[in-house]
Amino acid sequence: MTQTEFLDIVMPFKDKVFRLAKRLLVSREEAEDATQEILMKLWNNKTKIQEYKNVEAFSMTMTKNFCLDKLKSKQAQNLKLVHSNYQDHKVSLQKQLELNDSLNWVSKIIEDLPEQQKMIIQLRDIEQYDFDEISKMLDMNNTAIRVSLSRARKTIREKLTNTHSYGIK
Amino acid sequence: MVLNNIEELLVKYENGETTLNEEQQLKDYFSQDTVEPHLEMYKPMFAYFLVNQQEQFTKDVPLKTKKIEIYKWISVAAVAVLMIGFYFNRPVSQEDLGTYEDPEMAYNEVKKSLEMISTHLNKGASSINYLNEVDNTTSLIFKK
């Protein structure tokens, strides 16, 4: 398989891999490293790629496992993930600042969710995969995914309602 | 009517029962500028989902081909072939020289060749006999 063929397969979902990694690892740098690592692994096993029916789902599973391993080793080392995603893409209009602020709230709320719920929210609400695909990626059955998803969505809504009605905590 | 629909969808959404299509409807509704005041808190959530969908991986991936490694192994193989070649190409002089069956004959032959060696040796030794002259002369000089 040549480099271009490989890139044709990988390009469409590399951003999804990155976003899932970022959802789990929080820090942008860590997520970039993880994505790079995963793409390298795919490249090194490129002869086997053609045998897989769904490279995308396979890669997402790989990402999930890789990031969870990474988190586990971080916890074992008692290291804290430091992230410095301070960039601001928006023009500082009052309205947009407010919106940005509430987006940060959402991101914080999602950060506090358990890993599994984080992944499901990421895959479903952001990447818009259907339940069958998610169940393949996460190796869970559809009902478990639905339950988890419903819990995550309710938590987000509750916390948002709280901040909405009380203002900033 | 639209609002009722949205509220219904939201309930379904929270139970994880919406289809992707219905979720898209919700996203569309909440990306409007004005939503119902009592649904305001959902807005950032859906906005967040939409914003996060845009994020891209910008770092490039160094894709190394494995050719270099193959060359490495080819050179190793070449060296091995060369060494084996040298090893087996040593001039081997193991010609069959024959042997004697009869011990008597063998004895005679050995004697003959040993004699030959000794005569040749004596011949060589006699040719340096004149060195004795040195002894004779020195004894003449340093008379005791």
Describe the structure.
The complex is a heterodimer of chains A (169) and B (144). By secondary structure, chain A is mainly alpha-helical. Chain A is built from 8 helices and no strands. Chain A has 2 domains: 87 residues, Rna Polymerase Sigma Factor, Chain: A (Orthogonal Bundle); 79 residues, Arc Repressor Mutant, subunit A. In chain A, α1 packs across α4, α2 crosses α4 and α5 crosses α8. The model of chain A has no long low-confidence stretch (mean pLDDT 81). Chain B is mainly α and 144 residues long. Among the domains of chain B are: 52 residues, no CATH class; 39 residues. In chain B, 64% of the residues lie in helices and 0% in strands. Chain B contains 6 helices and no strands. In chain B, α1 packs across α2. The radius of gyration of chain B is 54 Å and the shape is rod-shaped. The relative contact order of chain B is 0.04. Chains A and B meet through α1, α2, α5 and α8 of A and α2 and α3 of B.
- Tally of DSSP β-strands of chain A: 0
Per CATH, the class of the largest domain in chain A reads: Mainly Alpha
Number of domains of chain A: 2
Secondary-structure element pattern of chain A, one letter each:
HHHHHHHH
Which geometry of chain A do the CA atoms define? globular
Low-confidence stretches of chain B: none
Quaternary structure state of the chains depicted: heterodimer
Q: Indicate the radius of gyration of chain B in whole angstroms.
A: 54 Å
Query: What's the order of the H and E elements of chain B?
Result: HHHHHH
Structural category of chain A is: mainly alpha
Q: Structural class of the helix and strand makeup of chain B?
A: mainly alpha
